[in-house]
Every structure is written in structure tokens, then in C-alpha cells.
Amino acid sequence: MRILGIESSCDETAAAVVEETADAAKPWVVRSSVVASQAEIHREWGGVVPELASRQHLRDICGVVERAMAESQTGPRDLGAIAVTQGPGLVGSLLVGLAFAKSLAAVWDLPLVPVHHLAGHIESLFLEHGPLPLPAVILVASGGHTSLYEVRQPGRYVPLGRTRDDAAGEAYDKVARLLGLGYPGGPVIDRLARGGDDRAVAFPIARMTHPDRNAPLLKGQWDFSFSGLKTAVLRYVKARGAGWTPSATEAADICASFQRSVVEALLDRTFAAARWCGARSVGIAGGVSANSRLRADAMAGGERIGLQVFVPSLALSTDNAAMIAAAGLRRFHAGVRAGDDLNADPSLRLV
Ligand code: KG4
Ligand code: ZN
């Protein structure tokens, strides 16, 4: 069976066709994956402007879906279903993909499967690597979320922890803006950090140990926090006086030191949670999983303790529709179908 996936939750318009195979070691194959990024449009503003994002999704969605169908040599009759991101995300952006998917499903008489964006990121690991050894502990670190899940059964994601404030990708984007490095911040900080000294500046590494005051029933030992780190970078820059711009070496040192703090915080919690759960594997997904240091340190950490670590390929790390199609296949087989009343939900919970 082939499924068409559609994703438009933030600033990427994406469509993909994923096919099921009979190979149990790799049950899903990407037939096509098309992503139209709006990064150029939002760069000027230093972050995503929701209204501009929805307008651009409207311009791009027809062509992106057409290309995904053409590149995979798929016609409507080759499809068994359509999967679409229902949330979370920017409501105007979500609505474009959702309305388009609903219309296609009606016209082509296909079932429609709603997908949670983070389920898509988690399933990107299964799409890339086939079934992970379970139980798995999975970190999703993106521009909007930083959360840890335990997966004991395929398709069931049990939350273990999440960020109390900024997401890891958001911290990258905000620090890049502060240093005048442009948007999105992750790739540029990643590149500059390679030439810097990661011990040059002693930025804090948050390890949450106390319960969340806003959710006291949660133990909070696997939670993250990145706003203190962002403020520490801000203070460091301000202390250098108005109008200060870092030299190339200084910028590289700040980026490397900031990145060490982020990566250590992410991996410390992830591996601690994996030990606590008796996990047989660790997965890291979401845009921040494209980070070269996070990938290298995660692999080295896994090797040290004899735990398999999985990351998606770079194309499946950042937002794409192949992961939505994969999560859609999983949900399709679980019997999930959307009715005509399906609506976008900007704060959809992953259950
Ligand atoms: O998953 P994603 O594409 O979109 C959301 O669901 O948010 O993640 C985007 C985030 C951005 O904050 C971006 O700066 C970050 O992922 N990112 C990176 C890297 N590439 C993208 N962060 C660190 N290092 C990277 N190489
Ligand atoms: Zn994402």
C-alpha cells in the first residue's frame, strides 16, 4: 500500500509518498519526499512570521503535492490513504495542509488519517531504520518541542519529560539572532562551533531535579530547560558593552560553548532516562538531531554503555512529509480515520 503524507505545521510545505513492503526489517520505503522551505522568507524577520507562512503554504502546496506524486510515479488509484499533520503547529499553516488533504481525500475517495507532528518525528526513526529494539527511549528536539518518550510497543509513546521553557531548537534560533547570525540558527551555530573552543565560556547546563510547579504530579527528573542558557549568552554579550560584535574567533568560541551546554543537557537526560527504563535503544529525532555534535556525542555515549543509538538521515531530521506518511501508515493500520469534521489543533497532545 502507498500513502500520501502532507505536512505544513510550520515553515516547510512538504508532501511525500511512502510505500509498505513485505520486508520486516524495513517495512516502509520513501518513494518521494518533496520539501519547499520558507527559510529565505522568514530570515529577514529573524524567525517565522505566521501570516507569511500560511500565505506561502497556499502558494506552494499544489506544486509540492503534484511533484511528490509525479516523482514516485503514483496516481490517485495507487494510494490507499492520505495522512496529514493535524497539529501541533501554527494554526494558519496547519489549516492549509489539512484543508488540502481533506479535499483530496474527498475527491479521490480515500481515507484520511490525522497525524501528530511529533509522532511523525518519532516514526522518522522507524522509517529510516526499520523496527528499533524496544523498549526505546526517544528524544524529539525541534524548534517547537523538546520531549522524551518511552516506546514499549510500536505506535505508543509514553511521555517521560519535556522542556519547561524554550525548546532546544528555539534556543539555537534565539542565540543565533542575538549574535547576528541569521535564521535558522541551528545549522549556522553547528558550522561555526566546529572551529571554536567549547570550554572558552562556562555556560550553565540545566539538570532539572525538582517537580514542575505547573505540573506537580510529574516527577520532572527527565525535564529540560534552556531559557537560563539563552539568558547566560545574552548576559555574556551585554557585559561586553553596547555595539560589541564578536570577532570570528569569539563567535566560534561562544557557539561551541553554547552547543556543548545544549548537547550535554540533552544527552545527560536521555541516557539517564534510558538506563531508568532499561531501554534497548535510544532514538534522537527532530530538527536538532541534524546537529553534528549531538550525533557524534550520542553515538560515542551509546558505544560507551553498549546501547544502540539511532538518528534519522539529515533529510528526515528536519520537517518533512515522509515521516508524516510513515506515522499515518501506523495509524491507518490501528484503524484511525478522520471524519469530515477534522480540524487543525495548534496545541494537539500526543496520546
Ligand atoms: O523539526 P524542525 O525542522 O521543525 C520543528 O518542528 O520545529 O526543527 C527546526 C529546528 C530549528 O530550531 C533549527 O534551528 C534546528 O531545528 N536545527 C538545528 C540544526 N538544524 C536544524 N539545530 C542544531 N543543529 C543543527 N544542525
Ligand atoms: Zn518538526
Distance between the termini: 26 Å
What portion of the residues fall into strands of 2 or more residues? 15-25%
Task: Write the CATH homologous superfamily of the largest domain.
Answer: ATPase, nucleotide binding domain
Estimate the helix proportion, in percent. 40-55%
Instruction: Tell me how many strands there are.
Output: 10
Can you describe what's shown?
This protein has 351 residues and is an alpha/beta fold. The chain has two domains: 2-121 and 317-333, ATPase, nucleotide binding domain (Nucleotidyltransferase, domain 5), CATH 3.30.420.40; 134-315, Nucleotidyltransferase, domain 5 (2-Layer Sandwich). Helices cover 43% and strands 18% of the residues. Strands 3-2-1-4-5 form a five-stranded mixed beta sheet, with helices on both faces. A five-stranded mixed beta sheet has the order 8-7-6-9-10, with helices on both faces. Strand 9, helix 9 and strand 10 form a beta-alpha-beta unit. The chain is globular and about 60 Å long. The structure holds 5'-O-[(R)-(carboxyoxy)(hydroxy)phosphoryl]adenosine and zinc ion. 5'-O-[(R)-(carboxyoxy)(hydroxy)phosphoryl]adenosine binds next to helix 5 and helix 6.
